[in-house]
Structures are given as C-alpha cells and as structure tokens.
Design a protein that fits this description.
32% helix; alpha+beta; Nuclear Transport Factor 2, Chain: A; 91 residues; single chain; 3 helices
Length: 91
C-alpha cells in the first residue's frame, strides 16, 4: 500500500490514551507491518502487526478499514499479548 492518509476513530484515540500507545507507533505499524491479515470477524477490516521497540519489542496490532482512494480509518490499536508471547517462544 502506498502511503495512506490516516483518519483516527474516536474509539482508537480513547483506547490509545488508556493503553499509553503513541500515535507514531501506530503509524509505523501501518506503514511498515511485519504481518498483514484480514480481520476474521469483520470483512473489510485489515489487521497489521509489528514489534514496538519502545515497549520492549511487544507486538502492536492495528485494525483499520480501507476507505475510498488512499485513505484508511484506524479502528483500534493494542499491544497484542498473545502474539508477543508466541514470538518470544519461537524467536
């Protein structure tokens, strides 16, 4: 995906504040994901994952929806415990 224009949902902004997640980490995960997959629960949504060095290399999960053109709306962002554990066990 070429550099998408990012819109932030109110939900994700609130969750990021609660979880102490920096917008730069979310943007970096979107722009340079290590893994990309469709959201199994919500067709039309995409999940992207990447390690966050600032948080002890924990894995960030960002879910977004594609909009028209080169725009996306970020739905949620979190540090994914399951993915982080799995990576540490296999890494």
């Amino acid at each position: 995906m070429s550099t998408p224009r990012i819109r932030w949902s109110d939900h994700v902004l609130e969750r990021m504040r609660m979880r102490n997640i920096e917008p730069a980490w979310v943007e970096r995960t979107i722009r340079r994901p290590e893994v990309i997959e469709p959201d199994p629960a919500r067709p039309g949504r995409v999940r992207v994952f990447a390690a966050v060095p600032e948080r002890d290399a924990r894995i960030m999960r960002v879910v977004y929806e594609l909009l028209e053109g080169d725009e996306i709306v970020v739905v949620t962002a979190l540090l994914d415990r399951g993915r982080t554990r799995k990576r540490r066990q296999t890494g």
